[in-house]
Design goal:
Residues 22-176 form the Transposase IS200-like domain. This is REP element-mobilizing transposase RayT. GO terms for molecular function: sequence-specific DNA binding; transposase activity. InterPro entries: RAYT_transposase, Transposase_17, Transposase_17_sf. With 187 residues, the protein is α+β, with helices and mostly antiparallel strands. Helices cover 33% and strands 20% of the residues. The protein is built from 5 helices and 6 strands, in the order H-E-E-E-H-E-E-H-H-E-H. The strands form 2 sheets. It has a 4-stranded antiparallel beta sheet, with helices on both faces. The protein has a two-stranded antiparallel sheet with strand order 2-3. A hairpin with a 2-residue loop joins strand 2 and strand 3. Helix 2 (52-67) crosses helix 3. The termini are far apart.
């Protein structure tokens, strides 16, 4: 028998069991940098100041609805080492393509996050390849040493179920830079 230990290598899903994450609805997402490394910029006087890497992340996030026509973005903020955002699936693209209980994973929240991470990594790699080794900053050095794995595995999500939930989360997102000193993702 092999040495595979299910408890050691099997990761339990943190998603809601049986929920279709490709269905119409609003979702609050948090996507983190590996090891909580602050590579997207800094907080100054309660404002997030994006660096060039942070701008790449912002551009790719804002480009998401251009790639997937059933996606709308709502409030979001890029923090030094993570992104919070509300994303809406405006209609279920799977209606025409669904066969039985099978839902194409390429239309799910997980696929959207995966595509976003891949796009940012490609753009960051392209940027880093133009930087001379001697001219790289500590942030660029960290990125070079961690590519392609700059993102933490997986993401956090919350299904937004009503208006009050949406308003509470939108307020949390919009005031997040003001609370950076108390943020759980701040080392």
């Amino acid at each position: 028998m092999n040495n595979y230990e299910i408890n050691k290598y099997h990761r339990r899903s943190i998603r809601l069991q049986g929920y279709d994450y490709s269905q119409k609805g609003m979702y609050f997402l948090t996507i983190c940098v590996k090891d909580k490394e602050c590579i997207f910029g800094t907080i100054s006087d309660g404002n997030m100041i994006l660096n060039v890497i942070g701008h790449i992340v912002a551009n790719e996030w804002e480009n998401t609805p251009n790639i997937r026509d059933n996606i709308a973005l709502h409030d979001y903020v890029i923090m030094p080492n993570h992104l919070h955002g509300i994303i809406e699936i405006t209609y279920n693209k799977n209606n025409e393509e669904q066969v039985g209980d099978f839902v194409s994973p390429k239309k799910s929240i997980g696929a959207i996050v995966r595509g976003f991470k891949i796009a940012t990594i490609k753009r960051i790699k392209a940027l880093i390849s133009t930087v001379e080794e001697n001219d790289s900053s500590p942030i660029e050095e960290w990125i070079i040493n961690h590519l392609p794995q700059i993102w933490q595995r997986n993401y956090h999500e919350h299904i937004i179920r009503n208006y009050e939930d949406h308003e509470r989360i939108a307020n949390y997102i919009n005031t997040n830079p003001l609370r950076w000193d108390e943020d759980m993702f701040n080392n």
